[in-house]
């Protein structure tokens, strides 16, 4: 029974996950994935910064210890010299005091030397850890940049996919009926072409009727009247019209022929 309940739970979980992935916006999911990668890089950078800070602090401590070592060494040498000078002068009291001071400086010198050796070892380890941290940050930054470039590529592909889906939907609406009450583009085109062909046919039939010929005669009469009126206007203005020029030429020819006939008879 328990196993059955587990199987049912897993089934509904998988079904819900599949439905969610189907309905989820890929752009939002892509932003979520990149946001997690960026957060991981930020955490790695913070850890690397802490490692590098420890390495820098170790270097500063080692530098101070080296300075102290030089000072204590110089003080110990000076105390030994002053104790030796006091002995030469026969001042046993000062010689003993300088000797104790030299011994104290020597003790501090040994302690500082141990600290320097410890700091040198720690500095080497922290430097190695710092170098590894820097390499890790650089590698992760390169991987993150690759993911960012992949994000731009995927976003471009997503936009292209959406545009293609819209185009496919539009083409489907143009080539197929949306519903029983909505005509297709082909049906509308056939209807318009049939109406246009019918109109052309009617025009051809009307062009051969008596009424059409009568209209042509009336139009010709109107054109002749307009030409005559134009010639009259030109005559009033003293301008020879193109239509009167042939008539004048015929009149001149007739007059010449009449003049030549009497001469011939004589």
Give me some keywords for this one.
mainly alpha; 2 domains; single chain; 6 helices; 0% strand; disordered C terminus; 266 residues; Helix Hairpins
Question: Can I get a quick summary?
Answer:
With 266 residues, the protein is mainly alpha-helical.
Describe the structure.
With 266 residues, this protein is mainly α. The chain has 2 domains: 7-158, Helix Hairpins, CATH 1.10.287; 185-261, no CATH class. 91% of the residues lie in helices and 0% in strands. It contains 6 helices and no strands. It has helices spanning 2-23, 26-89, 92-175, 185-206, 210-236, 244-265. It is elongated.
Name the average pLDDT.
77
Give me the CATH fold name of the largest domain: Helix Hairpins
Q: What is the CATH level 1 assignment of the largest domain?
A: Mainly Alpha
Low-confidence stretches: 262-266
| Gyration radius, in Å | 58 Å
Which structural class fits the helix and strand makeup? mainly alpha
The best one-word shape is: elongated
Number of helices: 6
SS elements, strand count: 0
